[in-house]
Specification:
3 strands, 32% strand, 19% helix, 79 residues, alpha+beta
Length: 79
């Protein structure tokens, strides 16, 4: 189970157009995962819900040619 409190940043990998990528350690299972942190802005709650629904669908896909999505989190970032 993923929880933000159980994730530790191990290493910064790099930055692209849509965000920064890090290696994280899940302290529950001692597995490392790549995470992309993006400052996605939503213009409405409907847009935010649509994004959340899309990510939920993606997390259920089991296909060897598609990178699995284990979890996603939405935060409000203040500048």
């Amino acid at each position: 189970m993923f929880s933000v409190k159980n994730l530790q940043i191990v290493k910064y990998i790099g930055e692209g157009r849509f965000g920064k990528v890090y290696i994280l350690l899940n302290t529950d299972d001692q597995q490392q995962y790549a995470v992309k942190i993006s400052k996605q802005e939503f213009s409405s709650n409907i847009e935010k819900q649509s994004f959340s629904n899309s990510m939920t669908c993606w997390s259920k896909i089991e296909n060897p040619t598609i990178m699995p999505l284990y979890a996603f989190f939405l935060f409000n970032f203040e500048e």
